[in-house]
Amino acid sequence: MENNSHLPIYFLISQEIIEKIKKKELKPGEKIISENEIIRNYNVSNTTARKVLQEVENQGYAQKIKGLGTFVKERARASRSATKVLSFTKNMLQLGFKPRTKLLQCQVVKENISKMVNGRNYSINGPVCKITRLRFANDKPVLKEIRYISTRFCPGIEQLNLEGSLYDIYENKYQLKIASIYQSLSAIIIEGQQLNDFERKEIVPGFSVDGVTFCGKELVLEIEESIYCGDFYKFNIEARP
Length: 241
What we know:
The protein has 241 residues and is an alpha+beta fold. Helix content is 22%, strand content 39%. It has 2 domains: 9-72, Arc Repressor Mutant, subunit A (Orthogonal Bundle); 78-236, Chorismate lyase, CATH 3.40.1410.10. The strands form 4 sheets. Strands 4-7-8-11-10-9 form a 6-stranded antiparallel β-sheet. Strands 1-2 form a two-stranded antiparallel ribbon.
């Protein structure tokens, strides 16, 4: 690459990459050209190639994941509070996104369901209604969830339209109030079959959330297993002394 400018070569290459991101030629979650590819394509040194990716990241257009590479970053990500109960639908509407839900599976299973959350085991006696849903923001899949719902508290729920807000169903159909929600959060890499669910071509970071929802003291209403796409979501956590 010829440099007829007073600007350093690493900066010029980084601007080429950023321009591709701005033009949507490189989309959020996609992997950016690697250091070795920069060295080969632009005939520059290792140091220069490293500075290129650092510049793209410093300007907020990419995020480096150790051992995996550098990925295009979502410039405006949805905030999800880890300390506040808020339905997906309301969360998306507040952020200016159009929410949509696709029901992938709904079945009643006879077995008891258990989940370890924050070091404690919680259970729902069978039968339970198991639903798998994909949640969309502006037609972009951003959340996949499996929920196990107590048929003791919600008899016949499998016959209802489950592509809307479950919280609304609990309150309006079954007169149940959410008392509390316990959740555990861990960082993951979304890969393999899950990439197809999220319509991504390259591996992306994500959040795995296991949760238990109560409708009264020690009354477990549902157990949750969710995957949040990390190129769209960030979690806010509040700590108080």
